[in-house]
Amino acid sequence: MSHRTTEETEDQSAALEFLARAENYDPRPAEEPVHIVTHGSHVFLAGDRAYKLKRAVCFPYMDFGTLERREKFTEAELELNCRAAPELYLGIRHLTRAQDGTLAFDGPGETIEYVLEMRRFDQDALLDRMAEDGKLTPELIEQTAERIRAFHDAAKPLSAKDAPGAGAGGIRWVIEENLEEFASQPEHFPPDQVATYTARARDALSKLAPLLDARVDAGHAKHCHGDLHLRNICVIDGEPTLFDGLEFNPRFACIDTLYDLAYFLSDLDVRGFPDLASLAFNRYFIDGGYEGLPCLPLFLSTRSAVRAKIMVSGAEAQEDPSIRKAMLEQSRQSFQAAQRQIEPAKPVLIGVGGFSGSGKSTLAQALAQCLSPVPGAVHLRSDIIRKRMFGCAPTERLPASAYNSDVSAKVYGIMLTRAGEALQAGFSVIMDAVNDRPADRNAIAALAQSLYVPFKGFWLDVTEEVMARRIAGRSNDASDATETVMLAQAQHGHGTLGDWEKINAGGTPAATLAIVKSRLDLP
User: Does domain 127-341 have CATH number 3.40.720?
Assistant: First the structure.
């Protein structure tokens, strides 16, 4: 899917001249409209509105070459994007020509173009801009992951015939397209690296083909967003909003839901936010459902490879040398990420235990991003699982009855089941719970032994005074534990730790993480 420029198939100059003048809008904007040109659209920012006109271009992957096709795909863009962002997409305006030749919005005469009207938003609200400005927060990323999951859950499953981008065939097409473009640009993509990468991608695809096709049969192929990177997500009225989904080619949008998610995770990883990628990953899978996880490394890597070639094509069209240089650097980083994300990984199981306030979840969350494969380990937190069992939000408090022994046994059972599923899918797992009962600790170690994966257990040793101070300082946390609960745990004790290593976790979170990483031989 080449992104090189091509000549327009029809003359749109009259429409562009009309849209470029403030006097043609009602209400009239205070300043002349700002004109932005992309490979497929002309966008005019006028006052509090944005007006999008599809360019009369015909690419192998995107054909807006006739007025009829521009009408069809403008209508499709409105319909599809109203699923996720109805507050942004306001309607379609007909650009008409009267008998005297004058143009107007929705006037008498023939329609010469179809213009999508959108609510304009502050560009600083784009997640890519927020990433550049250092304003992405864990809370926002978790909200976004929740929004993506809800969007996927609401979409209707597609058959194999209607989802050309899903299954083994869909991913095979992308891999081969990537190879073709990489091979044509050896000055940007070293042939030896391309050969190694492509061999790994093809090998992964060969192994995953049955699962990829089975996921289509299981209902995971849907009309997704299709282009779910940070620039296509913005914050509107405090909520992350997905917009500018792909409408023009089902091969790019009628895909596996995890391939859709992969672009978001890959973009975070490439931009240098592995912690946020890990957080988003675990929030999306907050209720388990790991059967598709073996596909995720290939999906991530393929998305990064696509971004690498797109950045090169985009750089070629830039007149500003600084912009061109920046885009080529993004391409280099993306291609490096594609190679890293597809590297084989061996899963490990890690148990983290300690009384309330010992820093278990802080450690587990920081450690998760350090484990392979990208975007990190599955972080199973007992507090979160318990809340989900009762249909509560993570920060909603539960009654004391939710912490009786029967409920706790069910929580640990769910954790063990999910840990087994994730490990078998090739992902490392961190089991984050008090783990003060020897039987629970032994069960975790036994799971690792049964699946022939390495296991390491850590008990976080902290004084009661420090744990009490940490509990008092909590806010918006999933733990309901009070100082009284912690003191009762400490009085009960943890029994013989056996193979679990006691770690002094009374210092800073960074110090505790450093100790654990050294024990795991992590860089």
Answer: no
